[in-house]
Amino acid sequence: MTAQGQTFNDRILAARHSIAGQGLAKAVCKATTEEIIGPKKKHLDYLLHCTNEPNVSIPTLANLLIERTQNPNWVVVFKSLITTHHLMCYGNERFTQYLASSSSNFQLSAFLDKGGVQAGPLRGYDMSPFIRRYANYMSEKSKSYRNVAFDFCKVKRGKDGGTLRQMTGEKLLKTLPHLQAQIDSLLEFDCSAQDLNNGVINACFMLLFRDLIRLFACYNDGIINLLEKYFEMHKKQAREALDIYKKFLLCMDRVGEFLKVAERFGIDKSEIPDLAKAPSSLLEALEAHLASLEGRKPGSGGTTPTGNASAFGAASGDVIDEKTAARLLQEEEAAMEKFRSTASASNPFAAPPAPEPEETPNILDLFGVPAPANSAPAPVSAAPAAAPLDFTSAASTKASDDLLQLSGNPFANMLNAAGSGQPVNYSPASAFNTSGSGFPSLPSQPGQFTNENAFNNIFGTNGTSATAVLQPQGSSNNTNKDKIITGDLDSSLANLASNLNFGNQKRGGLVPQPRGPPMAGLNAMQSQPMAHPFM
Length: 535
Fold this sequence. Notes:
mainly alpha, disordered C terminus, two-stranded antiparallel ribbon, Serine Threonine Protein Phosphatase 5, Tetratricopeptide repeat
């Protein structure tokens, strides 16, 4: 294969298509030969004419070109992409519509020509990266047409009736990202003047240059329209518009580098537009307006006004400089100090709640014994620290005042004393003081029983004290002293029943009948015979 003229493979393939009567396939083969030059104009013009003919199948033409991109030779693949691009730019729109209907036309992300040396220093390995990038741009061009339903390179531009100049703000925010993606994929071709050393890549670069001029002019119209509507947008739209404008500033630098390569390549300066950068005050005004919509100070967010596009790129990547970070930390510390100073005054949970008095039930009320006079509960904080309990002050020697032994119950007295809020002096020795009998000393309270004589008349003790009647049989003062615990009601009733002896003692006079119902639990009394006073 040589750099001049068609190869033997090209001639064989063209003859095969001629014999088969496939004129369209022969024209595609002629435009995509292995010759290291750009596609010839006569072949491109013929294919352009075919796109406008109604009797020519556009899908057939497109599939023939896509099939040529699967060739292992880098020249054939490169020239197939150039021919397809040429038809998309200057051919009938039906051709672009068909390519946009499929998203898997140019699958060349892994293309690599491992062939030998071709025409001296030219290697397929060196051209393969440019083929992959070019195929990516062709796919993005078809995708943008599929998304917006028109070709950005063919729409009307300028302030008088430009397509993007007349768009509404909402539609503009949806359209400009697709235009940005197409321009970014074109700029990723990233070739230098030294790489433009053969006719194939030169033809590709010229098509890309013309596309870039049209795309950037359309992009500029869209940004102008966006800025005119920016101050009428709400917060969400304004944030999106500001991001688009930031990307536009970054894109301007990359477009400027591409145009410098085109100038060194030999393109006339009159065809290269002059890119004038927007003043930095415009960006600051846009950010200040967005900050006012968001209710924050200008520059206090993740964005920082900058004077040039390169420094602005760092802010667009959510990078905060040291001064902004220090200012934010100071503002945060000031806010925390203000919060701490006002927290104690405004926090309702800072002071502990007032303690509520707890009512202790009076267990003596179950048996008709009145509670102590001072029954009002005292505050918790006013209660004295653990004071000893003392029951000796209210003790009495009359057992008839409390037959149920409730006054001698240390647990009942402790509960009632705690409920009354008065300190109770407790002494273990005095709590169980039996005073020579089997029962503890009982307090004397007037009104609980009639008198001691009536008690003696009822129980027939004949002058014997009540404590002697209530003392267990066969027990002495020495053996039972300080040993009998009378804290349980059941045990007290049992002791009372076992110690009551209604023997056949002769009593003179009329003995009154017991008042009230008989006490339950006196089963032991039924086993002893009782003498009727009139018998």
